Amino acid sequence: MHSVGVSHGLKILVTGGAGYIGSQLIRDLGEDPRFAGSQVVIYDSMRDERFQSLMHLPESGRYDFHYGDLQDADELIAAAQDCDVIVHLAALTNAVVSFGRAEETEEVNYNGTENVLAAADRSPTVRRVIYASTCSVYGETSGCVDERSECHPESPYARFKLQGERSVQALSGRTFGRVLGTSLRLGTVFGLSPGLRVHTVVNIFALHGALGMPITVFGTGDQYRPFVHVRDASSAFLFALTTPETQELVLNVVGENATVNQILSYVKPRFPKLKVRREPGRHLNQLSYEVDGSALRQLGWQPVINVQDGIEEFARLCSPFATQTSGVVIGG
What we know:
The chain has 332 residues and is of the alpha/beta class. The chain has helices at 20-31, 73-80, 102-122, 156-169, 171-174, 201-211, 230-242, 260-270, 294-299, 307-317; strands at 11-15, 39-44, 62-67, 85-88, 128-134, 144-145, 180-186, 188-190, 214-218, 224-229, 250-253, 256-259, 275-279, 290-291. It has a seven-stranded parallel beta sheet with strand order 3-2-1-4-5-7-11, sandwiched between helices. A three-stranded mixed beta sheet has the order 8-10-12. Strands 6-14 form a two-stranded parallel ribbon. The chain is globular and about 55 Å long.
């Protein structure tokens, strides 16, 4: 594997490359001088029809598109040939919806991950697999948890993501040290990307607020969530690619922890048409979990965009529907 900071000429397979995070990552790979001359292979089923994710890619990047889904083991093996790294992002991502789609979630998120790892095993050139996991593997927590804490996943989405993690961490033994795995447990991702996904907390609050559409808050709103901006999530994958110290680790990727009520307090001044319904009762979105992201920061990764900055992005995009302000510096 190339040494840290010298990643020229890699061939990088990105599963789910047209998705929410993937659409940002493929652009960052194409623009980052550390990956000059590298080829990015985008593997995607296009089930969500995010064709805009593949438009206006940076001219400095080298791209190839491979149409296929995670159930097609032969297609994955073909796509992984001659690759150096696999970044595995493809998944069904809505934790709440996964309760009604448990079998499909297992098929895509766990069995699909097994197919990706088999493709890595079958490729003579792959040396790294970097896997997108989730902080929701922890379940409801008492206090702030870190990578050493026990996991109690509540949803099928989180349960199968955790199972995938364990398979990724077993890669080294399975391949006699040839392929090394890294699992990044992402906080709730928010912010703008070409493959924008709306159902996450910050995004849906901002966009529903802009249009005066109602949103539902379960419980008191005092429940915590870990958050990370989509561009910071992408930078975490770049960091893992260029930092050998991340090999064989499970790492939390968190920008900040905030309560649902805090998010609302950021949205309301910018989108005064926001309508909030509050409902009592047990619900996945009522769970509270606060996650420590210091391990990745101590290795050198730093987030740069906080939740309030992310809401300002939406306010600028939806300016006719937002109260006006000036002097806001995104990422400042």
